[in-house]
Amino acid sequence: MESYLPIVILFVLFLMNIPIAFSLIASAMVYFLFLNNSIPVTLVMQRFISSAESFPLLAIPFFIMVGSVMNYAGISRSLLAFADAMIGHRTGGLAQVNVALSTLMGGISGSANADAAMQSKILAPEMTKRGYDLPFTAAVTAASSSISPVIPPGINLIIFALLANVSVHQMFIAGYVPAFLMAISLMVTIAFIARKRHYKPSRSEAATAKERWQYFLAAIPALLIPFGIILGMRFGLFTPTEAGAIAVLLCTLIGVFIYRQLGIRHLPLILRETVQGTSSVMFIIIGAMVFGYYMTLEQIPHNVAAALIELTDNKYVLLLLINMLLLVVGMFIEGGAAMIILTPLLLPAVLNLGVNPVHFGIIVIVNIMIGGVTPPFGSMMFTVCAILKVKMVDFVTEVLPLLLALFSVLMLLTFSESLVMLLPNML
After folding, report:
1. Along the 427 residues of the chain, how does pLDDT read in single tens digits?
2. Counting C-beta atoms within 10 Å of the first and last residue's C-beta, which end of the chain has fewer, N or C?
3. pTM exceeds 0.85, yes or no
4. Helix, strand, coil in percent for the chain, rounding step 5
5. Spatial distance between the Cα atoms of 9 and 61, rounded to a whole number of angstroms
6. Which InterPro entries does the protein's record reference (predicted)?
7. What residues contact 67, with CB distance under 8 A and at least 6 apart?
8. 241 alpha carbon, distance to own chain's centre
9. Largest CA distance in the chain
């Protein structure tokens, strides 16, 4: 049983609120220093260094930078105006715009926390001015931000592809259908709530065709970025890592020459936000790689896979059990970290029962995004509540119907592989 001691230590450190990266590193080092003396410490330190020496991982800082550049380049406001022109006249108009904006933003930033923070500052104040309850505004903002990382170029899509050794391009393509299903489910739920509470639309009447066309033309440069990235990878013009660099370049050119809002004064802010975002993600990845080295040596993934297969040989029952596990873990551990820790454990079991790894990846990512909205440690929940100064109890009351909508989509994706794989199989 002592081989499982580092896992126990890991969860104890989590409960003590120790940062995730340090918890992973500390629990792994307990194993290498005290439980297994056969491996030199110098070899373990080499693991720390080699974990970060991966060309595909360069995509992470690039796409984090894209989200930062986009906010300063005026792209966010252009997409907001376009979304409002299209659906602002509907019941609960601004709340619907909130969801639409997250969907549009996902193809550019791919970061849930960045989307939650941006909308909390730009759109949420306008919603409260129009009579929306502040806790409801916070709930919609947090729930809609869960869509962003499911649409390419979501960072979690890249990380899962690296962990599972599957095509980043396939993961990107597979994200579109689930993301749009999430958006539709939230919009339907919001429309029902808004009608019940008599929330007014942001526009007294629908925008004219001419207005919509004008806002669409203004948003075209921003909307073309995700399609350019996908098409470029599809035709072999660049790798996912190079796509990140090209996305930064495109956002910069659009911000400087088209929207004319990005200036040299923004460079220090963009670099600081990129370094902060990248360092936190990379520390977790490095810690998880070393922790994974310990688990591999002790054959823990193999043992967990065997135990799960003994429970059931039905892949759908197994996926349901894994969903329950991920939802519980997601309530206590930040989503990206949960994915990095659990994917090597769970993947062998699902592959053994014939589950498509891309399908499994989408299930995991949608699941951990829902976890980011749930108490007690949901990261998007904390981001929104902190910025809008909303009590967690009030937030949880308002977010429950939205969580139910997202759970429904998760179940649909779990039991319908053909739906998730529709676009990858077509392409």
Report:
1. 678 888 889 888 877 878 777 888 898 889 888 888 788 878 888 877 877 777 667 777 887 787 778 778 888 778 778 877 887 777 777 788 888 878 876 656 556 776 777 777 777 877 887 788 999 999 999 999 888 888 877 778 888 988 888 888 889 889 999 999 999 999 999 989 988 888 877 777 788 888 889 888 888 887 777 777 767 766 777 776 787 788 888 889 988 988 888 889 999 998 998 888 778 777 877 887 788 788 778 877 667 767 777 788 888 888 988 888 887 776 666 667 778 778 888 888 888 888 899 999 999 999 988 888 887 667 778 778 877 888 888 888 999 999 999 999 999 999 998 999 998 888 7
2. N
3. no
4. 80, 0, 20
5. 30
6. DctM (IPR010656), TRAP_DctM (IPR004681)
7. 108, 109, 110, 111, 114, 115, 277
8. 18
9. 73
Q: Is 312 helix (H, G, I), strand (E, B) or coil?
A: coil
C-alpha distances out from residue 79 to 74, 75, 99, 217, 246, Å = 9, 6, 12, 11, 20
Please say whether the beta carbons of 358 and 169 come within 8 A: no
- Within 8 A by CB and 6+ apart from 110, the residues are 63, 66, 67, 148, 149, 151, 152, 153, 154, 155, 157
Length of the chain: 427
Contact 115, 102 (CB under 8 A): yes
- How far is Cα 380 from Cα 275, in angstroms, rounded to an integer? 20
Distance CA 2, CA 6 (A): 8
How many angstroms separate the Cα of 369 from the Cα of each of 140, 170, 241, 327, 404? 14, 19, 23, 10, 13
Whole-angstrom distance between the N-terminal and C-terminal Cα of the chain?
47
What secondary structure does DSSP assign to 47-74, as a single string?
Answer: HHHHHH--GGGGHHHHHHHHHHHHHHHT
- Take residue 245 and report the two structure tokens written for it: 């660099």
- Quick one: which of 384, 397, 379 has its CA closest to 122? 384
